[in-house]
Amino acid sequence: MRQVIAPMNATIRDRTRRLFTLKFDLPTDSQYLVVKAFDGKHQIGYAKCIIQGECMLLQDIHISEAVEVREGFVINLIRQLVTRKPKTVNYRGQGIGTSLLLALLQYARDRGLHEVQGYLGPHDWKRNPALPDWYREHGFSVSESGKISFKFQ
């Protein structure tokens, strides 16, 4: 059975100051950290990291483009009859990823870690060419090979 260190929750805000919940999951038998972002009951994103010694390895940050939102039985029934599609919400481009990244940096800082590292693969660069600049804006160095690094002072 998997044990989890007392779950930690936090709240973040998007650019419009709307609140979202972060749930931190760090099993006691692993150094693998998963942080899930929620809008109410709907998971809208996540971050996956590995804690190794004094370093956090950032494996992935993802904010959903199309989350199916349930609005209640009658509204969902009308939507199915009229549009044949469920309501979806795009959470990208609202500052949620930035707030999630800043929460990860605070988590690492609070635990005395010295560095956060990661790697931008070719698929990351292709999907979002502005991603290296986004990391640089938040204090990361980005190498030509795609390595990202944030060192705490």
Question: Can you put this structure into words, describing what you see?
Answer:
Helix content is 25%, strand content 39%. The chain is an alpha+beta fold and 153 residues long. The chain has a single domain, classed as Gcn5-related N-acetyltransferase (GNAT) (Aminopeptidase, 3-Layer(aba) Sandwich). The strands form two sheets. Strands 1-2-3-4-5-8-10-9 form an eight-stranded mixed β-sheet, with helices on one face. It has a two-stranded antiparallel ribbon with strand order 6-7.
Task: Write a brief structural summary.
The chain is α+β, with helices and mostly antiparallel strands and 153 residues long. 25% of the residues lie in helices and 39% in strands.
- In whole angstroms, the N-to-C terminal distance is 39 Å
SSE succession: EEEEEEHEHEHHEE
Specify the overall morphology: globular
Biggest pleated-sheet summary: 8 strands, mixed
Residues in helices, as a percent range: 10-25%
Discrete helix count: 4
The main sheet orders its strands as 1-2-3-4-5-8-10-9
**CATH fold label:** Aminopeptidase
| CATH architecture type | 3-Layer(aba) Sandwich
**Total separate domains:** 1
Strand content of the residues, in percent?
A: 35-45%
What gyration radius follows from the Cα positions, in whole Å?
Answer: 18 Å
- Could you tell me the number of beta strands? 10
Give the uncertain stretches in residue-range form: 1-6
What CATH first level would be assigned?
Alpha Beta
Any key phrases for this structure?
single chain; Aminopeptidase; 8-stranded mixed β-sheet; 4 helices; globular; disordered N terminus
